[in-house]
Specification:
The chain is an alpha/beta fold. The chain has 11 helices and 18 strands.
């Protein structure tokens, strides 16, 4: 097979991988840093996926003057994680979020602002304060774009359309990875490897992930000798099954109090509610709780939707109808412009036509066990972003995935550079013969 050499290998071109590559290069400019991405750089990975009204990134700036602080932020992460999040990792996120966002602002990121020029912060699920920043729903895309440009400026090597098959380890020490690129096997030898391959939503029939998210990092890490944690906690929530656009339904869409109908055009939510609870109350609560959770009354919407679909009342496309046709188009454009325009571009007018939704897999809260610097149990192997585990626990606050990518992408990149500096790659297992995989 073809063989390449580098000092630091980053597998993944989303927010975590891009940040890790940049931080590694900035830490040790003389080291050769190579980023391998499963698709075209800047267009692959969940960070680059435009699939919701407000893709937020959490930071306790306290711009809304509601008393937010790193300590309150940490407490929110730990509480939302139901005791299963690593408190050391939670504390690192809460304390370093501001610095990482300031890094992005320094690179040219412009977050949505209020009329007075102050950066706007919103309150998302699992957050007791307003700490989410966004960029008109395209937050992840903009973050990766500025990081990508900076990586090219710093001469980070980029290999596109390159999918990880397995990691190469000799005596519990990382030596590189085997990839498939353009139908050929490629061995990339490295002094340190950073996994940033994302989750595994693509293994589910119904998901709101881009192509290429199949758990490659989980599989490779386990084979290499690393451990995983909290893999049973997968975020699932309402997403679109028709028209053919992967998109999450949350935020203002529930505040519009849509009619939910099964294939028989019957409204069904009320029959799944306990006495005294009204559908409007559940719909309003759902605005702040995208993934299914037993902790709020929003759970009844997910339960009702699931039972109607599995009980034989699903639409032709396997979902239920969501109807907001009674809401004027002007109001939709004003309060949910991103959602309205996404469907409009497909020729679908949600002010006149019903969309079909179902429970879809969005992200994994668990992953490869990491320490405070993104290190794993395999010497020289680091992980950051959705592929890593420990920072989220059983659940996570909305807006925490993106900041996790930046905080631990930076830490993993810096630690990998320190590890790789001066180390020689001497790996008997790297002398592989091409084989059928």
């Amino acid at each position: 097979m073809e063989s390449l050499n580098t000092d630091i290998l980053v597998a993944g071109g989303g927010g975590a991988g891009s940040r890790a590559a940049l931080s590694a290069k900035m830490m040790s400019p003389k080291l050769d840093v190579t980023l391998a991405t499963v698709g075209k750089y800047g267009f692959s990975g969940s960070t680059n996926f435009f699939a919701s009204e407000t893709l937020g990134i959490n930071t306790p700036f306290n711009f809304e003057c509601d008393g937010d602080s790193p300590q309150i932020y940490k407490d929110d992460i730990v509480k939302t994680g139901l005791g299963l999040a690593d408190e050391k990792l939670c504390e690192i996120i809460s304390k370093e979020a501001v610095s990482r966002i300031n890094d992005l602002i320094g690179l040219g990121i412009k977050f949505d602002c209020c009329s007075d020029g102050r950066i706007k912060q919103k309150k998302l699920s699992g957050c007791s304060k307003a700490r989410s920043l966004s960029i008109n729903g395209k937050t992840g895309i903009e973050i990766v774009n500025v990081l990508k440009n900076e990586n090219y400026k710093k001469c980070v090597n980029v290999i596109e359309d390159c999918r990880l098959i397995e990691l190469i380890v000799d005596e519990n020490t990382i030596c590189g990875g085997v990839f498939i690129a353009s139908g050929k096997l490629v061995l990339i030898k490295a002094r340190a490897v950073i996994l940033a391959t994302g989750g595994a939503g693509g293994i589910f029939h119904l998901n709101v992930n881009p192509d290429g998210i199949y758990g490659d990092g989980y599989s490779a890490a386990l084979k290499a000798g690393a451990s995983v944690i909290n893999m049973e906690f997968i975020q699932i929530g309402p997403g679109v099954v028709h028209p053919a656009v992967k998109f999450i339904i949350h935020s203002h869409m529930w505040e519009f109090l849509p009619h939910l109908l099964n294939a028989k055009n019957e409204e069904f939510l009320q029959k799944y509610l306990p006495d005294g609870l009204k559908p409007a109350d559940v719909l309003r609560t759902k605005r702040f709780s995208f993934p299914f959770s037993c902790r709020t009354t929003a759970k009844y919407l997910d339960i009702a939707m699931f039972k109607e679909i599995t009980g034989g009342n699903a639409t032709e496309n396997g979902g239920i109808f969501l109807d907001i046709s009674r809401v004027p188009a002007e109001e939709l454009i004003s309060k949910a412009s991103v959602t309205y325009n996404v469907f409009k571009k497909t020729g679908f007018d949600i002010s006149k036509q019903m969309i079909e939704i179902a429970p879809l897999v969005q992200s994994f809260n668990g992953g490869v066990v990491i320490d405070e610097n993104g290190g794993t149990e395999v010497s020289g192997l680091f992980a950051a972003g959705e592929v890593s585990g420990g920072a989220h626990g059983a659940d996570r606050p909305g807006g925490n995935n993106l900041i996790d990518c930046q905080v631990f992408g930076h830490r993993a990149g810096t630690a990998a550079a320190e590890y790789a500096y001066g180390r020689r790659v001497s790996c008997r297992a790297a002398n592989l013969k091409a084989r059928e995989i």
